[in-house]
Write a structure and sequence with these properties.
The complex is a heterodimer of chains A (570) and B (128). Chain A is α/β, with parallel strands linked by helices and 570 residues long. Chain A is built from 16 helices and 24 strands. In chain A, helix 1 packs across helix 9 and helix 4 runs parallel beside helix 6. Chain B has six helices and eight strands; from the N terminus they run E-E-E-E-E-H-E-H-E-H-H-E-H-H. In chain B, helix 1 packs across helix 2 and helix 3 packs across helix 4. The chains are: A alpha/beta (570), B alpha+beta (128). At the A-B interface, helix 7 of A face strand 4, strand 5, helix 3 and helix 4 of B.
Chain lengths: 570, 128
């Protein structure tokens, strides 16, 4: 059973997240491999664009090699009634040989920040080397491919959506794009960029200025790949997704090559980091051995078909609660500047202690009707430095809609600060002010709450977490209290009640995972608002209820899920 | 079992009126059990007083070797291979899979042996 479960999550042709690597198997086997996907799942087909080109200007979609016959592939998918879409790499892609670049254009190997060439071990332990996307020949080839592929889709009337994908790796706590490069090709391109933008010459004596110019150049070229793809595939274009490829960084390549490998614990830590930071992941590079037990459970239970299809807008969770479990979180933070302010104000460390993995950090506010509805109950936290006029206006709208909004004024532009004062006066809002560690204002309008504070004043305060304790006590976010080791991981889900559970407001399920080789214990206090209902699917784990809640014992690589009924405090 | 150290050579730099001399910096330092703890590396770098212990940079290749050997002794490994980023990249160019990737360290790395560990045979280990 465990073998089958692992096999489901790792297969060179179906490496995870519903991806189908058509070039990794004989075209004669496509049909049988397609039929291995559950019928209701959308099949994602990453385009190995370099695989379709032998010479510049000549692109083959099936006339010479059957494995390039995308018309036959789409015919099979359509014949079997499968929904599918393409994933087009907009950066070097770690799962593709040469990073996706065709052999005739692969000239200069890309160089990572640490100075080493990008080289990634795939799920069969072959080494994929990445070529610089700053090499003009690659852009030229990419443009030609897009033209050929767009024509192919148009002529054959294949109405399948195309998603652009930018690939990232995670190293030393930071996300790094595979587009980032410091190779000779990049330097040459940068030199041309400088000549074009500073025809009178510029002296790069200041390294900060040089870095800034290099970042601007890199962004311009990256945007060029996106806009070119969008223009060429207009009718089919769905947008761009950032994908963090697990196990793909230069450091991870070394770690994966040594006998100890990258541990389940390290992968789990990374996955939970990405979960909190709203990064979408791909496990396509991980081998069966790497994707065993905890990792396979976490990927299957929390990054499965439902989450994948939500991420690609195929379906969204109901705004209300139904009888099906859906991901549960209580706080959304909007801060595009790498959480710096949230870290300094003590918010993140407080949340890691009290609402671990129940918060999400996002770069952008997805201000869509569906998102507003489905995230209505969550507390939204904004940092002034990250706000532009649009997001600022949307933030105030959320408050007017009856949502709870916290605004850390740190870095808020003068213009927006004035707008805020005008908003408060124009709406005749009654302001309650307190000065506990930092000046804090509370405004209420119907169900809406707007709390404004100066997070900067908390930076040096050693007791800053107490501030957050008071804020969240005031907001009354009820949640079972969990005491556990930092190497134990939990993921919460929520559902509505069924007809025989009417005494509850909702039912919450916590999945607990122990990816370590040690025995771990977890204590859950139900407090006044929760009742333990049942344990689900224990594997090398056990739970005992007591008057305060539940005590859980997890053996190495164990897991368990527990259901709690949530009722109103009497 | 051996340790592997990938280093890079950095030319001298003037940053914010601060002059940084040319140096050899540690990029990756690992054994078959994983990466070596950075705090341990910082501590061991103190064997070379002229080194920048925070950034783990050394003024000469000889200093880097002294440091690498000290780490080797501390961990009790028999040898350490030092490989420059340039040689690592050359090796990567020719590597195709995990086997050839692992072989590049042997092919291009400069071996420094920890003689003290070699001398310590099973007999002496039993009585130490």
């Amino acid at each position: 059973m465990a073998y089958l479960e692992n096999a489901k999550h790792s297969d060179p042709v179906r490496p995870g997240e519903q991806w189908f690597f058509y070039w990794k198997t004989s075209a004669a086997l496509w049909e049988s491999r397609i039929l291995q996907f559950p019928k209701e799942e959308v099949i994602f087909i990453p385009l190995n664009w370099g695989f379709h080109g032998d010479n510049p200007g000549s692109w083959d979609f099936g006339s010479t090699l059957p494995e390039r016959d995308l018309l036959r592939l789409t015919g099979l998918l359509t014949h079997h009634g499968r929904k599918f879409c393409w994933i087009l790499p907009l950066t070097a892609a770690p799962h593709l040989p040469n990073g996706g670049a065709p052999a005739f254009a692969a000239r200069t190997l890309a160089v990572a920040r640490s100075g080493v060439h990008y080289a990634v071990l795939d799920n069969e332990m072959n080494l994929n080397k990445m070529y610089s996307f700053f090499e003009p020949k690659i852009f030229q080839a990419f443009t030609e491919f897009l033209k050929g592929f767009g024509t192919f889709l148009g002529i054959n009337k294949i109405k399948s959506p195309v998603w652009g994908a930018q690939f990232y790796y995670f190293e030393e706590g930071e996300l790094n794009s595979f587009f980032e490069d410091s190779s000779f090709a990049f330097e040459q391109g940068f030199s041309r960029y400088l000549k074009k933008n500073h025809p009178d010459g510029t002296e790069l004596t200041n390294p900060f200025l040089e870095n800034e110019l290099k970042e601007n150049f890199s962004k311009e070229v990256s945007d060029l790949f996106v806009t070119t793809a969008e223009a060429a595939l207009g009718p089919f274009w769905m947008g761009v997704r950032k994908i963090v490829s697990l196990g793909s960084g230069p450091r991870e390549t070394i770690l994966r090559s040594i006998s100890s490998g990258k541990s389940q614990l390290e992968y789990t830590r990374d996955i939970f980091y990405h979960f909190v930071n709203s990064n979408w992941i791909s496990s396509a590079l991980l081998s069966t051995d790497e994707k065993k037990e905890c990792l396979s459970w976490i990927l299957g239970e929390h990054f499965g078909p439902r989450e994948i299809e939500e991420k690609y807008n195929y379906q969204s969770y109901n705004s209300g609660l139904v009888e099906e479990f859906k991901p549960f979180g209580v706080i959304e933070i909007f801060n595009h500047k790498k959480q710096t302010e949230c870290l300094k104000s003590g918010l993140i460390s407080y949340l890691d202690e009290s609402f671990r993995w129940l918060y999400h950090v996002q770069e952008k506010l997805p201000f869509t009707p569906e998102w507003i509805d489905s995230h209505h109950q969550k507390v939204k936290i904004f940092v002034g430095a990250s706000l532009d006029r649009t997001t600022f206006a949307q933030m105030l709208k959320l408050f007017l809609m009856g949502q709870t909004v916290l605004l850390d004024k740190t870095g808020l532009g003068e213009g927006l600060d004035k707008k805020l004062q005008i908003f408060l006066i124009e709406n005749n809002l009654k302001i309650q002010s307190v000065n506990y560690m930092t000046p804090t204002q509370l405004c209420e309008l119907g169900e809406g709450k707007l709390i404004i504070f100066e997070g900067e004043k908390l930076h040096e305060n050693p007791a800053k977490e107490k501030f957050w304790g008071h804020i969240f006590k005031f907001l009354n976010l009820v949640q079972p209290e969990i005491k556990m080791d930092h190497d134990v991981f939990t993921m919460w889900r929520i559902r509505g009640t069924s007809s025989h559970e009417l005494s509850y407001l909702d039912v919450r399920r916590v999945n607990i995972y122990n990816p370590t080789s040690y025995k771990k214990t977890v204590t859950i206090k139900t407090n006044k608002n929760f009742a333990f209902m049942k344990m689900v699917d224990p594997t090398r784990a056990n739970a005992k209820s007591n008057s305060h809640g539940v005590d859980v014992e997890l053996l190495p690589h164990g897991k368990i899920a527990l259901d709690f009924g949530h009722y109103e405090e009497r | 079992m051996s340790l592997q150290l990938i280093y890079h050579f950095q030319t001298s730099q003037n940053q914010d009126t601060e002059f940084r001399p040319a140096s050899y910096g540690v990029v990756y330092f690992f054994s078959e059990s994983g990466f070596i703890d950075r705090n341990l590396l910082k501590e061991m770098s103190k064997t070379v007083p002229e080194a920048d212990h925070e950034r783990l940079t050394f003024l000469s290749l000889d200093d880097l070797k002294i440091f690498a050997l000290r780490v080797c002794q501390e961990i009790g490994e028999l040898e350490v291979r030092l490989i420059s980023v340039q040689d690592y990249n050359i090796g990567l160019d020719g590597a195709k899979d995990i086997k050839s990737f692992k072989a590049l360290f042997e092919k291009y790395g400069e071996l420094v042996q920890n003689d003290s560990a070699k001398k310590k045979g099973l007999f002496s280990k039993l009585f130490s």
